[in-house]
Amino acid sequence: MTDVCDAKIFDDKLSLPRIGLCTESLSTLIICIITTIVVQGLRHYLWDLTSVKKIEILSIDSDKRTWEQIGHIMLIQFGKTTLWVFSILLIVNANIWVILAHMISDVIFSGIFIKTTKKIIHKESAIITKKNMINKIKF
């Protein structure tokens, strides 16, 4: 019978029992916290990139959309899914410090990427705005 190590949620060290690393250490905890923050940053970047790309592609008539454009979305989705699975593995093996790092970085990166994501102008909105500008110029 093999011994099963267990994670202690309120410990200042971390083992990763569900992936077979049973030796608790502070360095494992620090690496997991940094990895969690990086993964959350990448996930938010890909979420915002997906939103922008989807809106750009959906503003094109469906018969004019290319498989290259759709392939970009699919590749981004694959990256999002991979990071999601990795994030779940981190959380399942985590203690309170990794979970807090996940939650805090999730909130912070959501704000950062909403603030920095480029403005999206729909084609119809641009046309309407242009018409409004022309109408305002006329006397």
What does this molecule look like?
This protein has helices spanning 26-58, 67-92, 96-116, 123-137, and strands at 14-16, 21-25. The protein has 139 residues and is mainly alpha-helical. It has one domain. The protein has a two-stranded antiparallel sheet with strand order 1-2. A hairpin with a 4-residue loop joins strand 1 (14-16) and strand 2. The protein is elongated, with a radius of gyration of 22 Å.
Features:
139 residues; mainly alpha
Could you tell me the number of beta strands? 2
Overall mean pLDDT? 78
Q: Write down the overall geometry.
A: elongated
Structural domain tally: 1
Question: What is the N-to-C order of secondary-structure elements (H for helix, E for strand)?
Answer: EEHHHH
Write the layout of secondary structure elements.
Elements: E1 14-16, E2 21-25, H1 26-58, H2 67-92, H3 96-116, H4 123-137
Antiparallel strand pairs: 1-2
Helix pairs in contact: 1-2, 1-3
Short description:
By secondary structure, the chain is mainly alpha-helical. Helices cover 68% and strands 6% of the residues. A hairpin with a 4-residue loop joins strand 1 and strand 2.
